Amino acid sequence: MERKKFVKKYPVKTDCVYCNEKKAVDYKEVDLLKTFLSDRGRIVSRTQSGICAKHQRRLSKALKRARYLGLLPFLSKI
């Protein structure tokens, strides 16, 4: 039997937006946070967004805070 080859679905970006700009993740920057949400309102994974692990953890907390405060929607209607 042959082994199946792993095929990447998304191109992997190597540059973290927050590391390059030396910015901190902030829940009040709604326009920037919207870029890390999918069309259905889910948090985008690291492989799609290209953010490092440290900033991905901080980003998820900031997105959850913004949702709780009503700055971002929990779900987006289709």
Topology:
Blueprint: H1 17-21, H2 30-34, H3 46-49, H4 53-69
Describe it for me?
With 78 residues, the chain is mainly α. The protein has a domain at 26-69: Ribosomal protein S18 (30s Ribosomal Protein S18). The chain is built from four helices and no strands. The chain has helices at 17-21, 30-34, 46-49, 53-69. It is globular.
CATH class identity of the domain at 26-69: Few Secondary Structures
- Note the run of SSEs as H and E: HHHH
Query: Strand portion, in percent?
Result: under 5%
Given the structure, what is the number of helices?
A: 4
Total count of strands: 0
User: What is the name of the CATH architecture of the domain at 26-69?
Assistant: Irregular
The separation of the N and C termini measures 43 Å
CATH fold call of the domain at 26-69: 30s Ribosomal Protein S18
What's the oligomerization state?
single chain
Structural class: mainly alpha
Which percent bin holds the helix content? Answer: 25-40%
Task: Report the mean per-residue pLDDT as an integer.
Answer: 87
Name the CATH superfamily classification of the domain at 26-69: Ribosomal protein S18
What is the radius of gyration computed over CA atoms, rounded to a whole number of angstroms? 15 Å
Poorly predicted parts: none
Morphology call: globular
Largest sheet, in brief, is: none
Key words describing this protein structure:
0% strand, 78 residues, globular, 4 helices, 30s Ribosomal Protein S18, mainly alpha
